[in-house]
Write a structure and sequence with these properties.
The structure holds 2 protein chains of 2 kinds. By secondary structure, chain A is α/β, with parallel strands linked by helices. Chain A has helices at residues 2-9, 11-45, 47-62, 65-72, 83-107, 111-119, 124-154, 167-175, 179-208, 214-236, 252-267, 281-290, 300-307, 316-328, 350-356, 365-368, 377-381, 386-393, 406-414, 429-432, 456-461, 463-472, 478-489, 495-508, and strands at 244-247, 272-275, 295-299, 332-334, 344-349, 373-376, 402-404, 420-424, 435-438, 450-455. The longest helix of chain A is centred in the first third of the chain and has 35 residues, at 11-45. Chain A is elongated, with a radius of gyration of 28 Å. Chain A starts with a helix and ends with a helix. In chain B, helix 5 packs across helix 7 and helix 7 packs parallel to helix 8 (170-187). The two termini of chain B are 25 Å apart. The chains are: A alpha/beta, B alpha/beta.
């Protein structure tokens, strides 16, 4: 079985990810208990404050997990890439079930029993500790159980911000559309959830029947804590060399590029920590500016428009110069572009291109009258999409363009349902389906040239970064990138190997 | 005078008065049984004694001191309370339940334990068989006895009992009542007991009072009350067999 083989070959990494996952859930749940149980007790004893506390906890619960991570990332002290932000987010999620069950547990203690306590002269505090709290414990443990199970699930998201855990495999698998990798993370995560649920259900049952006292339970928790703390010390505080942290966004091409930077730097003697598959442009940009990432690969169009909110110059060189200047003022250095441009590409079937001698978008003009185009929904709507394209190139197609899903559009062209599409210039599908990109000779599409962004401080401290990345400049053509994307996405080859083969070719080639 | 009600009125916020001008004086060592329909104000009267409630008019004095001046905790530690619902702590063993007040009073554990065993024996429950069991493993009658034992744990001078035997079958009720009488005789505890059952009131009380609509209609010996000519009291007595000759 493929998943089994994956686990065997990745067993040391798997162990580390499981440990990270358990730690994330355990520490965050413990923190939520430390806050949530006292808050729940206070809420149960003061109904007005209680309603406020419960609504805050409920509101926190409704924030989607990725959005919550997004909010937390830029905050000082708790934000940033890594486990800290994830722990805070997970603790916030764990809060509601714990608070709610504490309130329920305490307010549903039999009033006759409470009255008995008051009537025999218990102080408020004695009533709480001797009567209400012990009787509420099964309900509180039930809340902790719910919180833990939710936590095991939510912790998979933590990988998006580089906090590790089994989500690493899930995100990696999603990016590569590889079910085996997804399952390699999802199965142990589900097993962890079941194990946590089972053991806490057992504890809850024993407490309800009175066989386990709170003191015993506290000792069990303390013992588990010690074991995990030792594990944490091993995982997080292991002898740490001064490493260079390389990030990437969460799609195949980015993972390949992250691995490419990493291997190139390693070849120059640098020690690299990979934080690939991070949530997206925002997360990577945050990371590199806050010093949690040393480098990742960005695209000129994305940098100028999405990161710095400016209009992108149509000329590749000017766009890059603008990006470099903007980054420089943020303490980040833009190194020379790698060579390929991941922009929109107007694609036709290779057979048509050959038969009719099509090389540029302009060449479409004579044939457009007989052809049906197909575009993504967004491309059709945006003024800098389809309307501008036909205006700029003076195209008149036979029929209205068909609107279709981006993921289906390449297949639709190959199957002859449409005759011309706009796709991704480096898509693996271009070669796999024998498509031909037409040159954008009028520079209608903004350039998306890929280039490494590096923290200027890191560049000075680790000269090997500069040496390594200089060797990559201009070495990676559109065709190279398409081939590597195809190797990973279509042929399901290991990213490591694909990158290593490419670097071997680069070093064998004569210097530029 | 160990407990004294002086023109006491009590009204729950937004409701009709629960007690109206109740005056009552209880001698040490006496058993006063108050009888009335449910809702007549009996439980309210008991709660005024141990300061679970404070009177809205008039005053309640315990051991000569107004309950307003008592520290609530100190007052309650001097008063045992047995409820209809018993209110045993379900998470504690029988021994822990009975020894809770001694433990609150910081008795040494050994002494608290010995006291619990002594009391269990007193109410007819063998400590060897019952001490480590939990309330839910006991029958209703056994729980009621534990409730009595718990209320007596630190020899409180005053014992309040609210429908204490309501849940018991007649045979068990007679048994528990008999044991209570024996305990009272030995410890000379002052007892105020409220019930809706006039036969029970006649059987328990040195004096019997009748409460209706928040008013104390009569207070006297069982025979005196039984022979009252007040029609409202006759309505109670007529429904019941006459008190046993004492």
């Amino acid at each position: 079985m493929a998943v089994w083989r994956f686990w065997i070959t990745h067993r040391s990494e798997l162990g580390l990810l499981i440990e990270q996952h358990v730690l994330l859930v355990f520490v965050s749940t413990l923190a939520a208990m430390a806050v949530g149980v006292p808050a729940g007790v206070a809420a149960a004893r003061r109904p007005r404050a209680g309603r406020a506390i419960l609504s805050i906890a409920s509101a926190a619960q409704t924030v989607p997990s990725l959005a919550l991570l997004g909010f937390l990332l830029p905050l000082p002290f708790i934000g940033g890439i890594g486990p800290r932000t994830a722990l805070v987010a997970l603790a916030i999620y764990a809060l509601l079930p714990i608070v709610r069950n504490t309130v329920t547990g305490i307010s549903t203690v039999d009033p006759a029993v409470v009255e008995a306590g008051v009537a025999m002269g218990m102080t408020d505090r004695q009533l709480l500790w001797l009567v209400q709290f012990p009787l509420a414990l099964p309900s509180i443990v039930a809340g902790i159980r719910v919180a833990t199970v939710i936590g095991v699930g939510t912790a998979t998201i933590a990988a998006a911000i580089g906090a590790g855990g089994l989500g690493e495999y899930i995100f990696r698998g999603l990016a590569m559309v590889d079910t085996t990798t997804i399952l390699a993370g999802a199965i142990p995560a589900a097993a962890l959830a079941l194990a946590a649920d089972g053991s806490l259900a057992w504890l809850q049952q024993r407490m309800t029947s009175g066989r386990t006292t709170p003191a015993t339970a506290a000792r069990a928790v303390a013992a588990t804590l010690v074991v995990l703390a030792v594990g944490a010390a091993i995982v997080y505080a292991a002898p740490r060399r001064e490493t260079i942290v390389i990030g990437s966004k969460n799609f195949t091409e980015q993972v390949i590029l992250g691995e490419l930077l990493a291997q190139a730097i390693e070849a120059e003697g640098g020690s690299v920590t990979r934080k690939l598959n991070l949530g997206g442009t925002f997360v990577c940009d945050r990371g590199v500016r806050a010093g949690e990432l040393d480098a990742y690969v960005e695209y000129t169009g994305t940098a100028v428009s999405a990161v710095f909110h400016e209009t992108v110059p149509r000329d590749s060189q000017r766009a890059f110069e603008r990006a470099r200047a903007l980054y420089a003022s943020a303490g980040v250095t833009a190194l020379d572009p790698l060579g390929f441009n991941n922009t929109f590409a107007v694609l036709v079937r290779a057979s048509d291109a050959g038969a009719r001698g099509l090389r540029t978008i302009e060449d479409l003009r004579p044939v457009a009258a007989q052809w049906t185009p197909g575009f993504g929904h967004e491309f059709l709507q945006r003024d800098d999409g389809y309307p501008g394209l036909v205006r700029t190139y003076g195209l008149r197609f036979a029929s209205q363009p068909r609107a279709m899903e981006l993921s289906l559009i390449y297949r639709a062209l190959a199957d002859g349902q449409v005759d011309v599409i706009a796709g991704d210039a480096t898509s693996a599908m271009i070669d796999a389906l024998h498509l031909t990109p037409l040159a954008d000779n009028l520079h209608y599409f903004p350039p998306y040239d890929a280039f490494p962004v590096v923290r200027t401080a890191s560049l000075l401290r680790h000269p090997e970064i500069g040496r390594a990345l200089k060797r990559l400049a201009g070495r990676l053509s559109d065709a190279d990138m398409r081939a590597m994307n195809a190797a990973v996405d279509v042929q399901h080859r290991d990213v490591n190997v694909v990158v290593r083969e490419f670097l071997a070719r680069v070093s064998a080639a004569p210097p530029l | 005078m160990i407990v004294r009600f002086d023109n006491v009125g009590y009204q729950y916020p937004g409701r009709a008065p629960a007690l109206v001008r109740v005056s009552l004086a209880v001698e040490p060592g006496e058993i006063v049984a108050l009888v009335g329909r449910s809702g007549a104000g009996k439980s309210t009267l008991l709660k005024l004694v141990n300061r679970l409630l404070l009177p809205t008019s008039g005053s309640v004095a315990v051991e000569g001191r107004d309950t307003r001046e008592w520290n609530a905790i100190a007052l309650r530690r001097r008063i045992g309370y047995v409820f209809q619902e018993v209110g045993l702590f379900p998470h504690m063993t029988i021994e822990e339940n009975v020894s809770i007040v001694p433990r609150l009073e910081r008795w040494p554990p050994e002494r608290a334990r010995a006291r619990a065993h002594e009391l269990l024996t007193l109410v007819g429950l063998d400590p060897a068989g019952f001490a480590s069991r939990r309330p839910r493993e006991l029958s209703g009658g056994q729980r009621q006895r534990v409730g009595v034992a718990r209320a007596l744990a630190i020899d409180p001078p005053i014992l309040l009992m609210d429908e204490p035997f309501g849940a018991l079958d007649p045979v068990t009720r007679a048994e528990v009542r008999h044991e209570l009488a024996a305990v009272q005789k030995r410890l000379h505890t002052t007892i105020i007991v409220v019930t809706h059952d006039i036969a029970e009131a006649f059987a328990l009380g040195n004096r019997v009072g009748v409460i209706d609509g928040g008013e104390l209609l009569a207070l006297g010996t069982p025979v005196g009350v039984a022979q009252s000519s007040d029609p409202r009291i006759r309505a109670f007595v007529a429904a019941q067999p006459p008190p046993p000759p004492d």
